[in-house]
Design a protein that fits this description.
Layout lengths: L6 E2 L10 E2 L6 H9 L4 H7 L5 H15 L8
Antiparallel strand pairs: 1-2
Helix pairs in contact: 1-3
C-alpha cells in the first residue's frame, strides 16, 4: 500500500476534508500538531488509532498539495 492510500476524501467523513483512512483524524490536524512541535512518536502515543505511517502519509499528502506548476514569467 502506498502512503497516499492512507488518506481519503469522503463527503461522509469530516465534511469531505482529507483524513486518515478509517479515522476521523484530518490531515490538517496532524499537520497542526507537527507544526506546534509534536513528534511522530507523541502523536502516535496520544492518538492510538494513528500510526507513524499515517503521519508520514499526511506529510506526503501536504507536500504534494503544496507543489505547483512553475509559470513562465516571460
Amino acid at each position: 500500500m502506498s502512503l497516499l492510500d492512507r488518506i481519503v476524501i469522503d463527503p461522509q467523513v469530516v465534511h469531505g476534508r482529507p483524513a486518515i483512512r478509517g479515522t476521523r483524524m484530518r490531515v490538517s490536524d496532524v499537520l497542526s500538531l507537527l507544526a506546534s512541535g509534536a513528534t511522530i512518536e507523541e502523536i502516535v502515543a496520544d492518538y492510538p488509532y494513528v500510526t507513524s505511517d499515517d503521519v508520514r502519509a499526511c506529510l506526503q499528502y501536504a507536500a504534494l498539495q503544496a507543489d505547483h506548476a512553475i509559470l513562465d514569467a516571460s
